[in-house]
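Re: the multi-chain job from yesterday

Posting the exact lines I submitted so nobody has to dig through the queue logs.
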Amino acid sequence: MNKITKAFADNKKVLIPSITAGDPSLEATKELIIAMEEAGAGIIELGIPFSDPVAEGEEMQRSAGRALAAGTTTDKIFAMLKELRQETQIPVVLVTYANPIYTYGCEKFFDNCVACGVSGILVPDIPYEERQELLPYCKPRNIALIGIITPNSRDRIKMIAEEAQGYVYAVSYYGVLSDQVVEAKVAEMVEAVRKVTDVPVAVGYRVRKYAEGKAMGNIADGIIVDCRIAEIVEKHGAEGAPNIADYVKKMIAAMNA
Amino acid sequence: MTKGRYGIHGGQYIPETLMNAVLELQEAYEHYKDDPQFKEELKALYRDYANRPSLLYYAERMTKDLGGAKIYLKREDLNHTGAHKINNVLGQALLAKKMGKTRVIAETGAGQHGVATATAAALMGMECVVYMGKEDTERQALNVFRMELLGAKVVAVESGTKTLKDAVNEALRVWTERCEDTYYVLGSVMGPHPYPEMVRDFQKIISEEIREQMLEKEGRLPDVVMACVGGGSNAIGAFYDFIKEENVRLIGVEAAGRGVNHPDNAATIANGTLGIFHGMKSYFLQDEYGQIAPVYSISAGLDYPGIGPEHAYLHDTGRAEYVAITDDEAVAAFNYLSKIEGVIPAIESAHAVAHAMKLAPTLDKDKIIVVNISGRGDKDVAAIARYMGVDLHE
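And the result, C-alpha cells for all chains:
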C-alpha cells in the first residue's frame, strides 16, 4: 500500500502542509518538515521551485524565487530528502511543474523519487490529457500521480477521479489570484468524486484561515495549506518552525472541530 | 497525446483550471474556422479596417546597393496599428465576440500586440486589459499611452524578469479568475493548442498575399522568405503557404542580443533545449534544471525564452533555417533601411533586414528574397536614439 493511502486510513482527516524546498535554505526546510510532522501533519507536499509558477499566486512565486536565489536545485533537494529519511518516514508528495521534471529527465527523476521514498507527485501544468507524459514513469514505481480538480472542472471530474491515485486535489478557489473559498462548490466537487472512487479528497489551494479549515474539514478527507506557510517562512525564515508548528496544530484542531 | 502536435512539439500543458476554457476555445475555433460567414466578416475587416492586402514592395535601391539578389519587402508595417499583430487580433476578437465574451485580456512585449488588441476591443465594444512587463512599459512608454488612448487598461507586471514571459504568466493567472466572460487573446503562435494553430491560420494571409503578389510581379515564387522570430507569428505567417514549396528557402531570424555566445541573448533555436512551458512542448532557453532563463534583446518583441511549436518542428525537419542577429547588427539594419528606402522598420523586423543584408550579396542577381517587415519602427525611435547615445530631450 502506498504511504499516502495509509495516512488517510481509519477515516482520519489529514493536514497536508505544502512548503517550498530551499526557502530560505534546504537545511531550514528539513527542520520545518520535522516540526510540521511533530505538530501533526500527515503528508508533506514539498515544492521543487520553478522560475515561472503560472498556476500559483504571488506568495508562492516569491517563495520559489527565494529558494532559487539561495541556489536550490533538484539534485540538492533529493540530497536533502535522503537526509530527511534518516529522521522521518512521513509521506512526501513532490510538487513542481512539467519543465523541471522533463528537463531533468523523467527516468532519472522518478528513480531518485524512489530512492528518497517519495510517495506522490503533483504537477499543476500536466492536465489529465497530458498525463502520459509522466504516468508511464510513476506507475511501475508506485508513485501516485495526484489528479487535480477545480471548481470549473465540471464534467471532467469523473474521468479525473476514476484514475485518481493517492488523493484527489480539489482546488477550493476559482482562480490563481482568488481569495474566496467556494464552499458550496467544493461540497459538490467532493460529492462528484465520491461517486466514482474511494480515493480520499484533499481540499486546498490558498486555504489559510481556521474557519476555512473547519468548513473544509466537514466536507473533505484532508486539507492542503500552502500560501499561509509561505508567508510565515517569508516573515520568520529559518526561525519559523515554532510559528509553523503552531499554525499546523491550530489548523488540525479546526479541521477536526 | 493531445491535439495540436507538430512532431513531438505542441500539446496542452496547462493547469486544470484552464482546461475547460481552452477546450471551449478549441471547439469554437474548429466550428468557426470553416464557417463561411465568419471568414467573410474577417476578410471584410482585413480589407476595410486593417488595410489589407499589405504591399509587396521592390526595394530597388537596397537591391542595387547590396549587389546581389533582388529584395522585396512585405510591408506589414503599413497595416492599421503598424504591425502584423492586427491580423491575429481581428480574428481572435471576432471569435471572442461569436463566443459571447465581453472582455478580452492580452499579454504584450513591445506593445504592438497590446495596441492591436486594444484597437480590436475598441472596434468591437469590448472591455480590454493588457498585461505588460514593468521593464517593457518603460522601454515602450509610448505604446502604453496608445493602449490607454484606445480605452484599454494596462497592468505593469512586476513579477519575475518583468518582461514578456512574465506578462504571459500573469495573463494566464488572471484568465483562471474569469474564464466565463473573458477571452485571452494570445499574441503569438505559442501557448496551448489551439493557439499555435489558430494564430498561424490568422497570420498565414501574409504568405498567401506574398505568393499572389510575387506571381503578379515576377511570374514566379521567391527563392527565400525571411522574417524575425520571437514567438514566431509573423514568421509562420510569412512561411506557411510556402512550406509545401520545397524550392523556397525559409529563414527565421532570432535575436542574439549581445551575441549568440554572450549570456544576454534570446536565440532559442541556437541555444535552447527541449522543454515544456507556457502550455507547449518546444525549445526554451533554460538551465540544466529546467529553470527558464532570463533573456535579453534590444527588441522587446523578440525578448521571449521560447519559440512556437511549429517552428520547433520546422527546425527539427530542416524545412526552415534559423539564424541569429545581434543588437548591433539590428540597429545598423534599422538605420540602413531608413536611409536607403525611407522605411523605418520595427527593431524586431530590423533583425530580418540585417540577415538579408548578409545573404543578398552572396546570391545571384536572378534570385529573389522577400523580407517580412513585420512592423514599423516609430515605437523604437526613442530606444534607438538612446542606444546610439543621442539625447532627444524627451
